[in-house]
UniProtKB/TrEMBL annotation:
CDD domains per UniProt: TM_PBP1_LivM_like
Domain of life: Bacteria
Coiled-coil segments on the chain, per record: none
Pfam families per UniProt: BPD_transp_2
Keyword vocabulary terms for this entry: Cell membrane, Membrane, Transmembrane, Transmembrane helix
Localization annotation: Cell membrane
Membrane topology: Multi-pass membrane protein
TM segment ranges: 24-45, 57-80, 92-112, 119-140, 174-192, 221-239, 245-264, 271-292, 298-322
A GO CC annotation given for this chain: plasma membrane
GO molecular function: branched-chain amino acid transmembrane transporter activity
Protein name stated in the entry: ABC transporter permease
């Protein structure tokens, strides 16, 4: 049943360019899709490990800058008269490096910050994002600072026997973002339903019990941070090559808040939650812009957010699933207990 719904959803999204001819709305769908990928990566931490990262946009921005600089090339000076000269590489290489470098940064942040959690972890992630933003703003020789990196080349994909395909049009970028979003969704789905995913959920629900059966807290959370950061880096790379201009404003705190809103309203801990929340709050400003003044748009945006959280406090997807779910039998009610005992034996 769920696989059928997923397939129908993919087909529906794939059919959008066949009937949507408005380039403005197509652009909004592409950028919304990119931020949905970022929201899915945040949901892996917030929804399945319970760790709130308010600096998640740092990995998004790192991916954007790494991919852009890889494809543009650079020449920067170092202390003692050394210089690093990098000639431009194909954008697809930049996409891969964006995932790798963002993942390594996620490893560094996770290794240092998962020894403390709660409010301390939130502070660490916010501080990291601010440090990265200041580096991008002030290292002018590398990043051009507030002048921005411009003329970033579009992603080019090699097709066997057909040569290279440069994804310049909105139609091509739409399908590229859709493909990456589907791969991300499948990857996260397989991950959270694996042995590692059960360990993540165990830490979120009862850390003391999880530790008692042998789950390594720091290793599990750090690996989750690496995967989450890598996915965010991929989203940042797509953003850089689609917009083709990047400046330090990509690290703006409002972008992290947007991702958090997408996750919370859609339903944290659910696979489809960030997609549903992302579509609502990614496209809502687009539909409000022609009919409201900027101040009224923010009021309406906040009003919709409050109504959703008041009516559906668990988020849209979990709340609706709970309302339409059939009553459980006694055997089904006891099933989670048996499942937990099995997981404990596996880890012991």
């Amino acid at each position: 049943m769920r696989s059928g719904i997923a397939i129908l959803t993919i087909v529906a999204f794939a059919s959008v360019p066949l009937w949507l001819r408005d380039p403005y709305l197509m652009n909004a769908l592409i950028t919304t899709g990119i931020f949905i990928i970022g929201a899915m990566s945040l949901n892996l931490l917030l929804g399945f490990t319970g760790q709130l990262s308010l600096g998640h946009i740092a990995f998004f921005g790192i991916g954007a800058y790494v991919s852009a600089l890889t494809s543009l090339g650079f020449d920067v000076g170092l202390p003692f008269g050394f210089r690093i000269v990098h000639v431009p590489w194909p954008p697809i290489v930049g996409f891969v490096l964006a995932i790798v470098v963002a993942g390594l940064c996620g490893y560094l942040v996770g290794l240092l910050s998962f020894r403390v959690r709660g409010a301390y972890f939130v502070i660490v992630t916010i501080s990291f994002a601010e440090v990265v933003r200041l580096v991008a703003l002030n290292w002018v020789e590398l990043t051009q600072g507030p002048l921005a990196l411009t003329n970033i080349p579009s992603i080019t994909i090699g097709l066997p026997g057909l040569g290279d395909l440069t994804l310049r049009t909105k139609l091509q970028n739409y399908y590229l973002v859709l493909a990456v979003a589907v791969v991300t969704y499948v990857l996260i789905s397989r991950l959270v339903h694996s042995h590692f995913g059960r360990a993540m959920r165990g830490l979120m629900e009862n850390e003391t019990l999880a530790v008692s059966v042998g789950i390594d807290v720091t290793r599990t959370l750090t690996l989750a941070a690496v995967i989450s950061a890598g996915i965010a880096g991929a989203a940042g790379s797509l953003y850089a090559h689609y917009i083709r201009i990047i400046d330090p404003e990509v690290f703006a705190f409002i972008n992290t808040v947007t991702m958090v809103i997408m996750v919370i309203t859609g339903g944290k801990g659910s696979l489809a939650g960030p997609v549903v929340g992302g579509m609502i709050f990614g496209l809502l400003p687009v539909f409000l812009r022609p009919i409201m003044a900027p101040e009224a748009q923010w009021i309406a945006y906040g009003g919709v957010l409050i109504v959703i959280l008041f009516v559906l406090p668990r988020g849209i997807v979990p709340s609706l699933a709970l309302r339409f779910r059939k009553p459980k039998s006694r055997a089904e009610t006891l099933a989670p207990v048996a499942f937990s005992e099995r997981d404990a034996k596996e880890h012991a």
